[in-house]
Amino acid sequence: MINVVSEFDNLISDFSRFYILTLLYERPTHGYGIISRFRKRVGKEISPSLVYPFLKQLEQKGLVKHTSKPVGEKKREIFELTRAGRELCIRLFRRFDNLTSTAIQANLEVCDHCGARIYDGGHLELIDGKETTFCCIHCARAYIEEIEEIRLKSPKSSNKEGD
Ligand SMILES: [Zn+2]
Description:
The chain is of the alpha+beta class. It has 2 domains: about 5-105, Arc Repressor Mutant, subunit A (Orthogonal Bundle), CATH 1.10.10.10; about 110-155, no CATH class. It is about 55% helix and about 20% strand. A 3-stranded antiparallel β-sheet has the order 1-3-2. A two-stranded antiparallel sheet has the order 4-5. Helix 2 crosses helix 3. The longest helix has 24 residues, at about 85-105. The radius of gyration is 28 Å and the shape is elongated. The site of zinc ion (ZN) has 8 residues, from loops.
């Protein structure tokens, strides 16, 4: 039987690793810097037992290198991506970007007037009893004006009474 909880844990730690890479991509940092920025951005704690072994793994693969910087009596290790590491990040970001934008676009509505994709609700207008979506009220008005213009121009071919 599949252990759902540990599957979820794996997923989260994959996300954490991915996010560690994005933090490294922004700038070189020490391990604690990753932990505190992760907390700030994601709103969750990340365990040092995930961060440090992952950094080590990346270093072994030639994706990260570190330099030691003296801080008072102690030394602090600053990690930064190598060129290969940056290239890997760019590939990951691109793939991720494609995936997320596909998901987002699948849920987008399109303005009936200008064809713009609508990210946030848009403007609904009841036209001929049909709910029609526009990106904004201006597009809605322009659309309605156009329809009315077309109706005025078109010859009265209908034999309907009371038209
Ligand atoms: Zn529009």
